[in-house]
Specification:
Length: 303
């Protein structure tokens, strides 16, 4: 077995989307080959309702799949096909935009006014970009959770892991999407198929991800406070860890434990023409989508 090298660790950056939702973006609108087949990852966590209540009003998508995972609060959604519903804490929605859809997502805080969730965009191969749109809404109670003897917990949202399979299926990127908690001071190794691109997103606690060339961990920063030297691993809250090729990811949890998403998928390796929420293979396909938005033919009739 080979440890995946840690290529990079970087903090998610604050940004604003929709009608004024403040969130943190781990990656997106940069080099689409970097984490192919994944295009964008947002962490929408906020304790101030005024920073998220305006939500994401009606907007189009084509050529991608969006994966929304809610931890706190709710997200009300509706679309141009007549679908509507509410995602609650622990729920997941996997939307295949395919040939095109208009939808809206309106986050609502919990009783304490807190909202937390994630949205991931996955690319579709050219052969599937104009497929019929569809949804997979999954309640948290239907997501299998594995608890290991050392207290490690893994929720299997998509894909197969430790003998359990997540409830979302038929996804083009053939992804594995795991929500992992490793208890304080526990060292744990997770196997990932070598051919997949992979990243971790740490959103609670801290820890060190072993590197193929530096097993003690990566990106350590020393903070000198008087005579005391505290070593802080930068793979703490709201940090993206991007891995190279290999078969295993190993993490050493810190004093408070660590919780992170571990996501991997098969690269598509096709040209990307991208404008906002529309992702195609060529500039002409992109221009065609824009023309259809203007003339009202963006939504394709069901066959």
């Amino acid at each position: 077995m080979s440890i995946r090298p840690t290529l990079e660790a970087r903090k998610a950056m604050p940004t604003m989307e929709g009608a004024g939702v403040k969130l943190h973006r781990a990656f997106g609108f940069q080099d689409p080959s970097e984490l192919d087949p994944f295009l964008l990852f947002d962490d929408f966590r906020n304790d101030r309702p005024e920073d998220f209540m305006r939500g994401f009003p009606w907007h189009p998508h084509r050529g991608i799949e969006t994966i929304t995972y809610v931890l706190q609060g709710t997200v009300e959604h509706g679309d141009s096909l007549g679908n509507e519903g509410t995602l609650g804490a622990g729920d997941v929605q996997w939307m295949t935009a395919g040939s095109g859809i208009l939808h809206q997502e309106m986050p609502k805080g919990n009783i304490a006014g807190q909202m937390h969730g994630f949205q991931l965009w996955a690319n579709l191969p050219g052969s599937m970009k104009m497929t019929a749109p569809r949804y997979q809404d999954v309640q948290g109670k239907d997501i299998p959770e594995i608890i290991d003897d050392d207290g490690t917990r893994v929720k299997v949202i998509v894909g197969e892991f430790w003998g359990k399979r997540g409830p979302v299926d038929g996804i083009a990127a053939d992804p594995q999407y795991l929500d992992i908690y490793v208890p304080p001071n526990v060292r744990k190794t997770f196997k990932i198929d070598t051919y997949r691109r992979a990243f971790a997103y740490v959103f609670k606690g801290a820890g060190r991800f072993s590197d193929a060339s530096a097993p003690q961990g990566v990106l350590l920063e020393k903070e000198v406070m008087g005579e005391e030297v505290n070593i802080r691993d930068l793979s703490g809250n709201r940090t993206l860890i991007r891995f190279g090729t290999g078969e295993e990811v190993t993490v050493q949890a810190g004093e408070e434990g660590i919780r992170f998403l571990l996501i991997s998928g098969a690269p598509i390796e096709e040209p990307v023409a991208w404008h906002g929420p529309i992702v195609m293979n060529t500039q002409e396909e992109l221009r065609q989508a824009m023309r259809e938005l203007r003339n009202g033919t963006f939504i394709k009739p069901a066959h």
